[in-house]
């Protein structure tokens, strides 16, 4: 703000000096003004009583003292030296006018030169200040660009309310370790204030040790799809840039919406991509999910007591229950993976009273091996149906197994009214 005020003040001062300079250069002095000045100067000449010579005897007469010649008594009222002070002719006035104009023009030239110097100095000051601002802005931009690199952090500064969990990572927690890049999960932190009524609201902080071993900056994205038997879809943990040849420790939070415990026995990282920040070439890409275990033995179990088993084969069990709430009434599905492979939900479609409708559910949710996944309430997207539960509703789920595409399958339309 002070710099802005300074620049504004300099601009106002510059405008003032330019106007002043233009007035001086155009020599805005009226003819009457100069004429009056010349006449005033002429009158000043008349005020001074001269010492004259007597026309009769030649004696000197001080007209301030003597009214007649002190030597011969002759009068000097006709003396030309005396009468000239009362009879200033127009030629004399014109001569004085020219002299005053010359004086004014000389003074104006000096003032113009002074004003021009002030203008130049003000312009230089504005250029310097703006150059400084541009330079400062460039420096800040470069600094901000540099600050976009993730650097080493501390839990106290970034997540001050969190403390280290009473369980630890088993082994070295390695997610990726190549010649170019290393990423390891090294700690889990929980927030005590989230405990209430013997439950936990599900936010955790994860500590990562990261080494960029390449000679170029890299951009890294990491996703997690599972926590202790419960699939959480495909959660982005971080997407950041890391400087070349850097080794940092960072902290990022992750939220498990279905969690009711601060215990984590394992985390499944399903996607890790490391790319050059310059040309976006792939440095590393995770092909198969990586499971990191902890010393905790906690594990989530599906709650299906009040649900209906609507589909079952050697790969997936699907349970459904209708939740009649004011905000999102609809069917909630629990999908349990019974295989040693991971499945991805690639599509899901409703048929309501014979009309095909796409329900509100995100595709590409991952169900790792021996995990279960709980959907949000599914309801017809874009349309409202009264008494949705009482209508003729069918649903189809399609699944993909990237590890073994021969296991891909679809349930076909399942009648939810049975």
Structural class by SSE content: alpha+beta
Shape category:
elongated
At the fold tier of CATH, the topology name of the largest domain is: Immunoglobulin-like
Low-confidence residue ranges: none
Please trace the helix and strand order, writing H or E for each element.
Answer: HHEEHHHEEEEEEEEEEEEEEEEEEEEEEE
Biggest pleated-sheet summary: 10 strands, mixed
DSSP summary: helix tally? 5
Q: Please give the number of β-strands.
A: 25
Rg, please? Answer: 48 Å
Distance between the first and last residues' Cα? 71 Å
Please identify the top-level CATH class of the largest domain. Mainly Beta
* Tally of separate domains: 3
Which architecture of the largest domain per CATH?
A: Sandwich
What's the mean pLDDT score? 79
Please state roughly what percent of the residues sit in beta strands, choosing from under 5%, 5-15%, 15-25%, 25-35%, 35-45% or over 45%.
25-35%
Share of residues in helices: 25-40%
Key traits:
418 residues; alpha+beta; Immunoglobulin-like; 3 domains; 10-stranded mixed β-sheet; 6-stranded antiparallel β-sheet; 5 helices; elongated
Describe the protein's architecture and organization:
This protein is an alpha+beta fold. The protein folds into 3 domains: 110 residues; 139 residues, Immunoglobulin-like (Sandwich); 108 residues, Immunoglobulin-like (Sandwich), CATH 2.60.40.1230. The chain is built from 5 helices and 25 strands. The strands form 5 sheets. Strands 9, 10, 12, 13, 14, 15, 16, 17, 18 and 22 form a 10-stranded mixed beta sheet that branches. Strands 19, 20, 21, 23, 24 and 25 form a 6-stranded antiparallel beta sheet that branches. Strands 3, 4, 5, 8 and 11 form a 5-stranded antiparallel beta sheet that branches. A hairpin with a 2-residue loop joins strand 19 and strand 20. Helix 1 runs antiparallel to helix 4. The longest helix is centred in the N-terminal third of the chain and has 58 residues. The radius of gyration is 48 Å and the shape is elongated. The model has no long low-confidence stretch (mean pLDDT 79).
């Amino acid at each position: 703000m002070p710099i802005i005020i300074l620049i504004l003040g300099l601009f106002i001062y510059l405008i003032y000096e330019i106007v002043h300079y233009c007035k001086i250069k155009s020599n805005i002095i009226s003819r009457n003004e100069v004429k009056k000045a010349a006449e005033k100067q002429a009158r000043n000449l008349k005020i001074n009583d001269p010492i004259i010579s007597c026309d009769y005897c030649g004696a000197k007469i001080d007209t301030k003292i003597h009214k007649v010649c002190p030597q011969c008594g002759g009068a000097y009222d006709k003396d030309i030296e005396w009468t000239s002070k009362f009879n200033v002719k127009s030629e004399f006035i014109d001569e004085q006018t020219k002299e005053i104009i010359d004086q004014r023009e000389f003074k104006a030239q000096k003032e113009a030169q002074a004003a021009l110097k002030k203008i130049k100095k003000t312009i230089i000051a504005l250029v310097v200040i703006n150059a400084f601002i541009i330079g400062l802005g460039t420096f800040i931009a470069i600094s901000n660009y540099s600050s976009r690199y993730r650097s080493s952090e501390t839990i106290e500064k970034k997540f001050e309310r969190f403390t280290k969990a009473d369980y630890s990572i088993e082994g070295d927690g390695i997610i990726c370790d190549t010649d170019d890049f290393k990423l390891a999960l090294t700690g889990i932190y929980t927030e005590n204030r989230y405990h209430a009524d013997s439950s936990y609201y599900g936010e955790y902080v994860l500590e990562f040790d990261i080494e960029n071993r390449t000679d170029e900056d890299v951009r890294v994205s990491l996703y997690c799809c599972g926590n202790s038997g419960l699939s959480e879809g495909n959660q982005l943990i971080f997407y950041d840039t890391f400087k070349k040849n850097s080794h940092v420790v960072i902290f990022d939070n992750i939220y498990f919406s279905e969690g009711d415990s601060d215990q984590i026995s394992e985390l499944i990282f399903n996607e890790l991509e490391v790319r050059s920040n310059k040309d976006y070439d792939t440095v590393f890409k995770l092909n198969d999910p990586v499971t990191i275990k902890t010393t905790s033995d906690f594990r989530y179990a599906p709650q299906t007591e009040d649900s209906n088993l609507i589909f079952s084969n050697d790969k997936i069990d699907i349970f459904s229950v209708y939740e009649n709430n004011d905000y999102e009434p609809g069917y909630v599905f629990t999908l349990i993976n019974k295989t040693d492979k991971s499945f991805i939900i690639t599509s899901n479609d409703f048929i309501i009273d014979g009309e095909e409708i796409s329900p509100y559910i995100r595709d590409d949710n991952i169900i790792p091996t021996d995990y279960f996944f709980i959907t949000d309430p599914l309801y017809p997207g874009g349309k409202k149906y009264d008494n949705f539960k009482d209508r003729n509703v069918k649903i189809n789920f399609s699944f993909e197994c990237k590890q073994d595409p021969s296991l891909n399958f679809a349930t076909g339309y399942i009648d939810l009214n049975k």
